[in-house]
Design a protein that fits this description.
Helix content: 40-55%
Number of helices: 20
Oligomer: single chain
Structural class: alpha/beta
Strand order of the largest sheet: 16-17-19-20-21-22-23-24
Length: about 725
């Protein structure tokens, strides 16, 4: 071995020794860091668990309070037990019951010892407050809230959640099954114990496990913190010599504390094995390092070529990807006069259905087919690329919209030519948008974004949507409407218009639907078609709906006070409300504020938005809550969605409104049979039915023949301002 080789070996030996020393130091620091991170992780997860438990308990209390508001409204005392049983299932209580001052309960067979002596029940009776207690010896949580009748607490509504359900709630799921939690009070007394019978340490023994000064001090501090509702975390050695982490968090319920116990090596437990493996890997890496360098140099040029190809090639079509398209398009447009090129965006509408119905392979074949057809139609100095998913970009050497449309029509026609040879003719619907490159040096990404904007804001299907400054103006208009919204609400610029509903049995007016109009002092009347879609994109629609509801309540009160006679009025309700489970409380408060009796106000919900099981469950619960508040519910646009019949089976709606599309071709026998079947079904289900959008006498004659209950539409009247509505009503009386 020569001196040079010896120096090289010595150099690598020194480097290796330095690496090993650095790894030992790094391992020590890593253990300290992991321990700190573990403590913080346990504290954060336990805090989230405590917040979840508090939120769930508060939700139970709020649900019970809302239910207590509904109890005095029950007309049938004999139905109280059935009502409570039904609500117990909905609200996840094991048992719901009423107890009066004499100790009598509904239902009568409540299996609770010394019910009248429980402190929570006494608190609800004596102080009129909602209370939560743990019934020691009976192993359940008791929620109780007062029930007011004529301003006095005559009953208490109580709900029971058994210990088993709460045990499942407190069990942490973020510690790989190694965590253990329980709820105690500020004195350390266990309220809800864990369900796991094989914990590494019994939780009740934790206060006796400190054998050193640090642990004893930590437990003493924890006991003081628990009394003061202060959260914390500490590490200690348990009686079985395990290193454990204790986290404690105050719940916003009584003086209860959530204790969470996990192993201290939760995160770092497997680190030692990996550290040893790291030593082996580093040693092997040093040995192979030289070979790696030689191989890297050898294959550098080949790898570079492959990387360039991968970076600019779409793996599905084999053609350009979006990055290559942007680079090539930028080159073409910079070397051509302004407005020589137009960037076109094509989107295959409903492409996901192809994957779902025919499989991923068929979907990929379809995308390759589209790409090949588009490429076949290109001229010299024009390019095409698949952007992402089912989007395609074209750079056409065109600027005339008619020529562009003709070329796109021919492309789409050829794309769909494959159906001529198929047994089932299936046509791809391809949405089109375009932007002319008419600004010098404009980045192609901006041009593509403008094409996307044109596609997103197109007013109608079919044809190519070309980007123009008008689209920018439309976006500015939307922003302006949102800016004007608060002042419009404050200044009562939104006005209620009423469209009558007429009974076909006797020709009498049976009610009205409240519609909104915006009368701006400077802009004049703004069409609902302009502002409703804008407000539905944010929370403004919820504010507007509640505003219109209050205006209707004010109108009903005026009718009652002036002796005109009240009429049922329906108010539209956006689906955005259903993101807030407690939104109906505000409607009930407004109704109560104006003293509107039950049954005069109806909330209209578009049934087509409730298309899955989760949303239908929200609707079912909401309809029940509407009825509890004395509000009726109708399904608007009935029959256009996929869930119509399912909703009728699953919800207690009061009215369905047949969508106007059923009556467009009223002479069609199939349409007549469908309408008549809906009306007969509604009669059997005892649901009111309204035909909306009725405009001709032919439609009206048919609806009379099939005994439709109520009609709304221009055949009787357009939407009217309240004063015009009153006049129309007087003339019809």
């Amino acid at each position: 071995m020569g001196a040079r080789q010896g120096l090289q070996i010595g150099f690598f030996t020194v480097v290796l020794s330095g690496i090993i020393a650095a790894m030992i130091w790094n391992t020590s620091e890593l253990n300290i860091t992991l321990q700190d991170r573990t403590g913080q992780y346990v504290k954060d997860v336990s805090y989230q668990l405590a917040s979840d438990i508090t939120a769930r308990i508060h939700w139970n209390e709020l649900s019970l309070e809302q239910l207590a508001d509904s109890v005095p409204r029950l007309q049938d005392k004999n139905g109280e037990e059935e009502f409570l049983n039904r609500k117990a299932d909905i609200l996840n209580f094991d048992t719901l019951f009423l107890i009066d001052c004499d100790g009598s309960t509904v239902p009568e067979n409540v299996d609770v010892e010394s019910l009248g002596e429980l402190s929570g029940v006494r608190t609800s009776f004596e102080e009129g407050k909602t209370a939560l207690i743990y019934a020691e010896g009976q192993n359940f949580l008791l929620f109780s809230t007062p029930v007011y009748r004529d301003g006095k607490v005559e009953e208490v509504l109580a709900g029971i959640r058994k210990e088993e359900t709460m045990q499942a709630l407190i069990q942490p799921k973020s510690f790989e099954g190694n965590g253990l939690s329980c709820i105690v009070d500020s004195e350390g007394k266990v309220i809800i114990s864990p369900t796991d019978v094989k914990p590494f340490l019994q939780l009740e023994d934790i206060f006796a496990s400190g054998s050193d000064t640090d642990t004893t001090n930590a437990i003493t501090k924890m006991q003081e913190d628990m009394k003061n509702k202060i959260s914390g975390v500490f590490t200690f050695t348990a009686v079985d010599s395990r290193q454990l982490i204790m986290s404690y968090h105050a719940l916003e319920v009584n003086d209860w504390i959530l204790l969470t116990l996990v192993p201290a090596d939760l995160i770092s437990g497997g680190a030692s094995v990996y550290v040893f493996q790291s030593f082996v890997i580093v040693a092997a890496t040093i040995v192979l390092f030289v070979l790696f360098i030689l191989m890297t140099i050898r294959f550098y040029r080949k790898s570079r070529r492959e990387l360039e190809k991968s970076a600019f090639t779409d793996p599905l079509t084999g053609g350009m990807n979006n990055a290559a398209f942007q680079r090539e398009c930028q080159r073409l447009t910079e070397g051509a006069p302004l407005s020589s090129y137009t960037v076109v965006l094509l989107n295959v509408k409903g492409f996901k259905l192809i994957n779902e119905n025919f499989g991923i392979a068929a979907g990929n074949d379809t995308l390759r087919h589209i790409y090949n057809v588009l490429k076949m139609h290109l001229k010299e100095d024009e390019v095409v690329a698949r952007g992402e998913a089912d989007y395609f970009f074209l750079a056409l050497r065109e600027n005339n919209q008619l020529n562009i449309q003709l070329r796109l029509d021919k492309m789409i026609q050829d794309i769909n030519s494959f159906t001529k040879y198929a047994d089932i003719h299936y046509y791809l619907t391809i949405q089109q948008a375009a932007c002319v490159v008419d600004e010098p040096g404009l980045n192609i990404r901006i041009v593509q974004d403008r094409a996307r904007t044109a596609l997103r804001m197109r007013k109608e299907e079919g044809g190519c949507a070309f980007y123009s400054s008008d689209l920018t103006e439309r976006m500015k208009k939307e922003q302006e409407l949102n800016v004007l919204f608060e002042s419009a609400i404050r200044n009562h610029e939104f006005q209620v218009y009423l469209q009558p509903k007429v009974s076909l049995r006797d020709g009498a007016i049976g009610g009205a639907e409240a519609l909104v109009r915006w009368n701006h002092p400077e802009l004049g009347m703004i069409s609902p078609a302009d502002f409703i879609p804008v407000f539905e994109k944010n929370e403004n629609i919820c504010v507007l709906d509640l505003y219109i509801f209050e205006e209707v309540c004010r109108l009903l009160k005026r009718w009652r006070d002036t002796g005109c006679g009240m009429l049922p009025v329906s108010v539209n309700l956006s689906r955005a409300h259903f993101k807030n489970f407690n939104f109906l409380r505000a409607y009930a408060d407004v109704k109560e504020k104006y003293g509107i009796p039950d049954g005069w106000l109806e909330l209209e919900v578009t049934e087509s938005v409730f298309f899955d099981e989760q949303q239908r469950e929200v609707l079912r619960s909401s309809v029940d809550q509407m009825h509890a508040y004395g509000l009726l519910c109708s399904l608007d646009d009935f029959g256009v969605g996929y869930s119509s019949l399912g909703l009728l089976k699953e919800t207690d709606v009061d009215t369905i409104k047949l969508d106007r599309q059923f009556f467009v071709d009223i002479e069609n026998p199939k349409a007549q049979n469908v309408i008549e079947s809906f009306i007969q079904l509604a009669e059997k289900l005892k649901i009111h039915i309204v035909a909306e959008g009725i405009e001709t006498e032919k439609q009206l004659d048919f609806l009379r023949r099939v005994r439709c209950e109520m009609v709304q539409g221009y055949v009787f009247s357009k939407p009217l301002a309240p004063e015009e509505f009153d006049e129309w009503r007087r003339k019809r009386a």
